[in-house]
User: What shape does this take?
Amino acid sequence: MRDSGRLPVRALQIACLAIATEACRTDRGPGTRTTPSPVVVEKVYGGGLQGGWEDYGWARRTLAAGGPAEIDFSGHGGWIVARPGFRGTVGDLTFRFRAPREHGDFLEVRLDSLRSDVFPRVRLEARHRADLPDGWSEAVVPARELNPSVLPFDRLVLRAHRDVGQAPVLVDGIGFAAAESSSSAATPGRSARPIHMTVSCSGASHRISPATYGIAYDPRLDGQAGHVWSLGIGARRWGGNPASRYNWEHGRAWNTANDWFYENVNFTGDADFTYEHFLEANRSHGVETALTVPMLGWVARDTESYSFPVTVFGPQQGTDPQRPDAGNGLSAAGKPLDPGPPSRTSVAAPPETIGRWVAAIREGDARRGVRRVHSYILDNEPMLWSSTHRDVHPLPTTYDELLERTVSYASAIRQSDAEAVIAGPAEWGWPAYFFSGLDAAAGFRLKPDRRQHQDVPLLAWYLRQLREHERRTGVRLLDVVDVHFYPMAEGVGGAEGGVAPAIAAKRIRSTRALWDPSYRDESWIDEPVRLLPRLKEWIGENYPGRGISIGEWNFGAETHMSGGLAAAEALGRFGEAGIHSAFYWTYPPPGSPAAHAFLAFRNYDGRGGRFLDFSIGTRADPGTSFFASRDEAGTRIVAVALNFDPEAPADVTFSLGSCGQPETVRSYSYDGGAGFVPSPPLSPSTSQFRRVLPPYSINVLQIILRQAGASGYNRDHRAGQ
Assistant: This one.
């Protein structure tokens, strides 16, 4: 690992203090657009709102008659303009703006409507801009990026995709070009590429865990949870920063940590909602539960307290708009304030408290005759506690503290549930696989904590110590190694990641960090990550027999096909690797490409059609991916084929080899439209058949094998085992 790269946003505050990084500088570079200004046919704003367009809010703004709009984009602010009932067909969006250079490229634009359609969020980049001599820039955003499916819309949103200062931004000349003159007008597609995809049934296969298709649960999004059941998910994870401070005895008390002013809250607003409702909802839908249990040592005492009252600590850099006395813990000058006693918001939660929680859950299970928690996760991202929960844990977490807390809290869980599956350490990302919070604070070049522990990477050392604990005591405290993974390349990650062609292509490539030892990560990491093989090696060397869980993951741009393809690729790789579980953060938006990635594996036909229980080997040409599964009898195969090319179809020859001859083949294709589109069934005369996969598409093949082929498959399968 390199010591001098850029850290992800969530650790940027530490990184900018420890090392000089490009991410700490935000100056906007010159625009690179060379295309001419489009002719506007639908005026939205020019010295005032035009043509029936209306101001729908939300940031502080001034719309002076005859002048540009002045908008304060601080605090991720934005502006919505709408034309109710608009049904026109338009092309590229254009507008002019003047912003402080230190804002950098901060703007994001998207269309919207009252329908359930999901429009891409397009981040304004240098390629969209042509700079003018007077400090203004003219932006042109192609319609193919804003509205690739040519859906009806009636509103436009301009928003800051990251925090900027309060200096006003001037915006004027907003309008749309004609569709027929747009730079996004339809162009002839490239001819189909010949591609080969092969299924191999002669090797050993393994069962795919339903928890591979898990999603996270975040109480802050509880109102959006309804649609997730239709995705066919296999598990839900109770987790995130608030879970570190959940008070199970109170039932409804959480703490928002530094995500929102360190406040105690009842997220759901429901007096009856407790962890029991979460467990019961999962049980009633046949979904496994992964439950994060606090080992931070403190949990919320109520639903009203907060850690940095202005009346106690004085003026602060930010306060809750709805609760002005609740500060963000930074002085007006931006300096972290020394926290007061944890008891201001919290009560102690020692290991015996968690042991009582697990015992209460098992008592409820006994009454119902069913296990409701399938794994317990040891807290959340402990190497970030001094940042996320610094009001109760201001000092950076060390190697020794992580081990001590793991031993004490996992022992309490094991005493209350002898058959519990325990997962940890739920670390947040690449640096925390190798270094402690103390190392991060001191600087990775110095790594004082790691040096005191034989210079062994944190995860490897952690596993070695827990193996030694089991050898010494006979008590197993860890069953599953749990880590979080997000792509680190600039502009790729996050639900609102960039969708420019180069970024979209990089997003799809970045999935190779999960498995490909030849892929050098295109970020500050700048070396092969090969996450799943690396974890298997560390487990094999230090504590054999542990499973793997990717407790949080997301490749960004959920509403863009690149995000959907990346999610489908990740789900395929997780099943192929045979891991214990994986949990998408948080909910794929309804109707989005990311949601369709889950549907491809769990409900592609809307009637429960899914990837089957056993993973089998595949091969596919570059620019595509191919994953296959079979049922226990070996009579059916369900495969997922991905075409990563945004322009060219893939003319695929599928070969089933020793799997046998297909009796029927049904295929379903999704390329960003309303859903999976079925094709007429095939009845091939050999073990090969062809299908053309659309550009940028997720495709499902449902194959019924002839009985003779199935028998041959079973013979080969037994030989492979």
Remarks:
- The longest strand covers residues 169-178.
- The two ends are 37 Å apart (CA to CA).
- The longest helix spans residues 351-368.
- The chain has a mean pLDDT of 89.
